[in-house]
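REQUEST ID: PR-0412
SUBMITTED BY: lab tech R.K.
PRIORITY: routine
TASK: structure prediction, single protein chain
INPUT:
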Amino acid sequence: MIRFGTDGWRAVIADEFTLASVRLCAAAIADWVKQTEGAAERGVVVGHDRRFLSEQFAEAVAEALLGQGVRVLYCDHGPIPTPVVSFTVPHTQAAAGVMVTASHNPGIYNGIKVKTSRGAPADRTVTTVIETYADTRQHSGEEIPLVAFSEPYVDGRYLPIDPSPDYQAAVRQLVDIEAIRRANLRIIVDAMYGAGAGVLQKLLGPGMRPIIAIRSERNPLFPGMKGPEPLAETLAPLMQAVKAHGADIGIAFDGDGDRIALVDSNGEFVSSQETFAMLAMYLGERDDITDGAIVRSVNGSVRLDLLAERYNVPLIETPIGYADIAPAMVEHRAMLGGEESGGFAFGTHLPERDAFVAALYMLDLMQRRGTDIAGLRYGVEIRTGAWHYQRQDVPLALDAMDEARSRLAAIETAAIDLAGSPVTKTVTLDGIKLIGDDRRWLLVRTSGTEPLARIYAEARDSETVTSLLAIGRALLGGEALPTTATPIVTVGNDGASPSSGRDKPTRQRIGRTRTYTRRANASKWCGARVG
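STATUS: complete
OUTPUT:
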């Protein structure tokens, strides 16, 4: 049975993910595509990553699409990152895209991501239709027609393409590549054995200080890690390399290149919330970029809210997952969208995550400000004050998930004390989020993909965060709430605390600090064609 999660269909290779099930999924995607008049002729872009048998699975997708009369634009120059497929769909005016990848999952998995004509991830409305078509075909037992690659050349229904040159040319236009080269930054890139290997080097081109690459070879076993996910626990080799080489920055890409993580010059992991805030500061203070909303998921840092207020742009909050963030970016003409997992999308480019654009923007920010990550962190803190953010995962039995959801839905918030602050606002977009009067917050939600609950908290100091997490655990378990209260930190009119308590950065040279009066609404969606 084919069932899509928050970002595609994923399953264990040779168990549920087989050539037969991939052909079934592709035929169902063809059924969905053909719902729109002329879409079959516009075609579907098909690409694949470096995982085990990804090439063979991508060929199976193409043969099934062709068998249903759908034109195929096949990326036949080897593995490519997901952002290249996302870009190529609107760039070629294709109707959709299919990427064979399991992203950051362990090596025993493979999967399929579906892209809409905008290059955005297919939302739940689309994937439900595909699932229904797949179920119908499976129950009918009818054989899926297949067309081999050699057959449709004559009528042009199969078009082999190399999408990378056009992608690289478009992305290079987003920053001043020469200025980044002149900055002479010492960069280390960790591809985590994935499809993102070598892409940043090609984007920056010759004339750049040589980039040191680690874990850049293809290895679908992803040795030394559970899966190619750029987390602190999987990036020890990158942290060690940054310190050993005295690098200015370490950059890691996940298995299919749509998520990014950073390591600072001290070899310390940079959280995705910090990266998100730095990117918001960068875009909000670039005069040549059209103003627009900042879109974050419900577990995003309040620093984004404060920066949106500073730049006079809307802050849009969504449920967790890019299937919700992408349409919100289009609707609100956003300049930036992001999530906790390290996926960032840009109004200058596409309403879909692109780790390589994020990397170029971070390098451009460093060269513009003449500082390192420590200096950029300090720049964000000047604008928002100090904030502490933490997440805890609580494993649950499978049969306890529904009970946990029901318990969270029944919570009465009026009498809850948020470690010294009353609850002033409740958000139920995804789980239950309680917000205090100094903007501290607590979120408790059950995972949509794993048997566990996640508890998030953010406040001005770490002690309050610890107290909030304890409250979250009590709410999840239906237990009595802790009684210990933490005093509220006094907050200035600009949202900054009188004293941040953070040590000064190792490099303090910060670029010019400016205050902006920003336009309230974006005039248009920027970047690649999204029609």
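NOTES: The domain at 9-162 is CATH 3.40.120.10 (Alpha-D-Glucose-1,6-Bisphosphate; Chain A, domain 3).
REVIEWED BY: pending
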